[in-house]
Amino acid sequence: MLAALAIVRHFPGQIESDLLDKNLDIADWHQGTRDEHGRLKLSSRRLLEVLEFLKPDTAFKTWAERHGDWSTERKMQQTIANEISRLRSTIQARYGGTPYEPMLWISPSERVEQQTQNEVSLEAEEMLGDRLFGW
Questions:
Q1: Main-chain phi, psi angles of 126, to 5 degrees
Q2: Could you tell me the superkingdom of the organism this chain comes from (predicted)?
């Protein structure tokens, strides 16, 4: 029960959303709701089993295992799509036609990394400007 409680406390919205997709309600676990035979509708053991075997792209797995990043399968799809886009751009450049700028897919972790790099670059530019102009 303590393991289930710890997990539910960290990812309540994601777990509720994923359970609803399986016609389960987290409220049944919280309230200890029993069915017509007196059995718990959602025991801690069953909750942990359901969470462990959720598909990789579910909200809980996305946030609990990858901190919001894409699954391996989705990253493979991203790589293939980006390679096709780059190939199209190369073919367009080589054989003429309308120039094509490749549209590249960026995963959430790559987006965060780019934002961080952009913020660091802006801070460095501001510091340099301050030193050069004495602000």
A1: -65, -45
A2: Bacteria
